Amino acid sequence: MNKTSKTTPTSGIDKDSPCQIVFFGTGPVAAASLRLLTEDFAIEAVITKPKPAHHRGSFPVLEVADELGLPVITVTDAPDVSSKVIAAQFRSEVAVLIDFGIIVKQDVIDSFLLGIINSHFSLLPQWRGADPITFSILSGQEQTGVSLMEVVEKLDEGNIVALGLFDLDGTETNASLTQDLINLSAGLLRDTLPNYIENPRAIPQEKVADIVPEIAYPREPSYSHKLTKQDGVLDLSKPAEQLEREVRAYLGWPGSRTVIAGKDVVITAAHVADNTLENVDKKTIFIANKQLCLQTASGVLVVDALKPAGKPAMPSSAFLAGYGSKI
After folding, report:
1. Rounded to two decimals, what is the model's pTM?
2. Cβ 291 vs Cβ 284: under 8 Å
3. pLDDT tens-digit profile of 258-274?
4. What is the C-alpha separation between 303 and 266, in angstroms, rounded?
5. Which of 86, 259, 282, 307 could staple 313 via S-S, CB 3.0–4.6 A?
6. Domain end residue (candidates: 211, 242, 259)
7. 273/195 same-domain check
8. Structural domain range at position 248
């Protein structure tokens, strides 16, 4: 399947008269989205979490806002959001929320004439919750996308304003799919929000499949959750096909971790072997055709690249050159 994306519905925007919005967001996806949205929208204010006192490293939304000279209001929890947003009395008719990390209460939603639009990176009601991108890869589905949803207090249950469809080809990593959906989200917001402000319309999630029949997924809601470090432990009692998807989905966090030749490693790239690869010694970890192989419950997972603890990522051939004799 060729990797493609499309949006529905669409409408244009006058570049000389950008719409004005308030932006809610905190994480790296929010930061990348904010940068793109400034090309098409006037950002009245950025609502985000403050950088913790002992935090080391970047805090991306604050950095992007500072770089672009955008007004910032920092908030720590739901009551703080309510207090500061209501006190601000924004002129914007609508707000956009992406990767915010704080529950937004009804009083905040009601403070905007047209409410708040959340850009959620799945085709709702599929993969409601905290980590839809990871679960789209883990499931092996052939299509995902972006849902623009009216924010309600119940998690990810608001009506759908627009959808962007994205076909998956089975090679996506968490990072690559995230970037693709960030770009799709920005285009969808650009093409949808001006028309929504003029004519606010949305449809219940359970009606989406009737209106957009090319969406290929069950109508029943499914749910993602935040991952833990334990999720990344490679379990060879699973099929090789599932573990290959985990390697791609968990790349970055939590990583697909195991022990090979006495070394703690994170597998960063792998593929499912064809049926000609033979496990002669019937070992769990073995070398065949100069490839590093893991015997699973069903099939063989061939490790293409990995990162030993304390060392940079390397191709498996380099790892075998140093540790192959111990396998």
Report:
1. 0.91
2. no
3. 999 999 999 999 999 98
4. 10
5. 307
6. 211
7. no
8. 229-326
Helix axes 28-37, 174-198, angle to 10 degrees: 50
Q: Dihedral (C-alpha) 116, 120, 125, 128: value to the nearest 10 degrees?
A: -100
Closest CA relative to residue 72, chosen from 14, 30, 18 = 30
For residue 82, the domain's CATH number is 3.40.50.170
For 73-131, write each residue's pLDDT tens digit: 999 999 999 999 999 999 999 999 999 999 999 999 999 999 999 999 999 999 999 99
Are 200 and 293 part of one and the same domain?
no
Asked, for residue 91, whether it belongs to a domain, the answer is: yes
How far apart, in Å, do the first and last CA atoms of the chain sit?
Answer: 37
Is 224 inside any structural domain?
no
Mark whether 13 and 44 lie in a shared domain.
Answer: yes
Q: Are residues 177 and 75 both part of a single domain?
A: yes
CA 109 to chain centre: 24
Alpha carbons 129 and 218: distance in angstroms, whole number: 17
Q: Please choose, from the candidates 316, 298, 296, the residue with its C-alpha nearest in 3D space to the C-alpha of residue 308.
A: 316
Q: Is 87 left (phi over 0), alpha (psi -120 to 50) or beta?
A: alpha
Residue 100 maps to a domain: yes
Contacts of 14 by beta carbon, 8 Å cutoff, 6+ apart: 194
